[in-house]
Amino acid sequence: MQESMAELFLHSPQTHILLLPLLLLPLLYFIISKHLIKKPRNPPLPPGPTPCPFLATIHLLKPLTHVSLAQLSQTYGPLISLKLGMETLVVASSPAAAVEILKTNDRTFSARTVPHAVPLTASEIERLSFWGDALSDHLKNVRAICRAELFSAKSLEAQRRLWQEKVAEMVGSLRTKEGAAVDLGRVVFATVVNVFGNVLFSEDIVGVEEERCCNEVRGFLRGIIQAISAPNLADFYPLFVGKFDPHGLRKKHRESSERMWGLWERVVRERRRSAEAELKNRDFLDALISRGFTDEEINKLFEELLTAGIDTTTSTINRTMLELLSSPESMIKLQQELHSVLNQDSLTDFPLEQLPYLQACVKETLRLHPPAALLLAHRARETCLVMNYTVPRDARVLVNVWAIGRDPTVWEEPVEYRPERFLNSTRDFKGNDFELLPFGAGRRICPGLPMAAKIVPFLLAWLVYSFDWSLLDATVDETFRATSQMVQPLLLIPRARKMSPE
Ligand code: HEM
């Protein structure tokens, strides 16, 4: 049999010697590329404390507060990272770091880390909730509806009459308690809750005098807030925990939500019955029904607006009162301004633009006591470079606006309550000044900002204008002032004002 030239070539020993290096080439390439060629490496994670496997787990059960995170950032810098279980947490604590998160890379960080305690499936979140992705159609749509029907200049003007009614009720009720100690926190809470009830579905939610009912509503609002903010092992080890609810927080949230929906269940039912005929109230509920919103969609939207709006608004008003009582000079300046502009007999006249000191007081409170000290958790949609560090995909990202508001390189005498610092300054909280971010900035900025910016000064003005206040308990110390939540009741004594302040 005759062998072909090719076969001869392949079987000759010289050919084997020639082919050997060729066959080894991929292996050689692998070794050289791995060990000898210096590949560009990703920059490291932002600096932070080295995780210790055992302690880290115990640490997860303690809340990481804005104060402890601010202390860490003093050691490690304005952008830090921490390993919490399987999760990477990144915290920005300077205006420059906040710009990177909320402006330069706003799109990347506009997703949210949804707490395990939120009792919704992933598809329900995308379909029903503010926890959804900022780029989703649902969120764009719902933010647009809120803007048009609740927070536009026209809607806010239309709500003014209703705010006046609720404020008149509040002032009337306080007049009957002159000289006695009142829990101002509860009175303000009831007023704010009823403003929301009337704006959303034209009904009061609580009686101003009904303590039990007020406590009940406060209880389930707090229930939801505590469930989503408490440390939860399920957030740190999602793969191991799955649907298991280790601390019962999901259950707590679900129960509180369902009790809250009971507040408007009857109204929605009645409104739907009359819906065919005519939606006369022209409140937010009518607007939603006429847009075809289902009961499930209405429940979730109302629940989230109330949870996000009531505690923040109430605590800002209470905090300002407390700061003004601890700073009599500021209180007198504010009273003088209010007396030169407002008129007791006409709550309708409220020219906010003529009340710069009032606006400065609100800004100063929000600088020192932003109700959402770390904003709500954002999430990195993809791996991203921030200040020459790598922030990995799915990292939980917080902005410590409390620390930024007290940064001594930005603010003179940062812990002092000095509204004057805003009088000749253009600094505002609308999301353009990254030294003052109580409402956040960018795609995720608080949608309720236009309402909060009007209703907080409105309520505050009538409280300060109508009464002289004194603290029942003078033990309000620095610790009380330093916490973000006002845990103690704010007990004050109102005395009706009879003449203008000196
Ligand atoms: C002084 C009052 C208020 C403050 C300080 C405040 C602050 C905030 C902050 C910091 C966020 C998160 C921003 C972020 O994660 O980047 C937020 C979100 C939100 N706020 Fe407010 N808020 C206030 C009042 C209100 C009011 C009155 C409403 C509604 C009536 C409201 C509705 C919401 C909603 C629905 C969200 C979630 C938005 C989203 O995730 O896209 N807030 N707010």
UniProtKB/TrEMBL annotation:
Gene3D superfamilies xref list: Cytochrome P450 (1.10.630.10)
GO terms assigned for molecular function: heme binding; iron ion binding; monooxygenase activity; oxidoreductase activity, acting on paired donors, with incorporation or reduction of molecular oxygen
Membrane topology, as annotated: Single-pass membrane protein
Domain of life per record: Eukaryota
Places the protein is found: Membrane
Phylogenetic classification of the source organism: Eukaryota, Viridiplantae, Streptophyta, Embryophyta, Tracheophyta
Pfam family, one: p450
Name of encoding gene: LOC105164142
Family, similarity comment: Belongs to the cytochrome P450 family.
Species name: Sesamum indicum (Oriental sesame)
Cofactor: heme
Predominant subcellular localization, coarse grouping: membrane
InterPro entries: Cyt_P450, Cyt_P450_CS, Cyt_P450_E_grp-I, Cyt_P450_sf
GO CC terms: membrane
Name of the protein this chain belongs to: Probable (S)-N-methylcoclaurine 3'-hydroxylase isozyme 2
UniProt KW keywords: Heme, Iron, Membrane, Metal-binding, Monooxygenase, Oxidoreductase, Transmembrane, Transmembrane helix
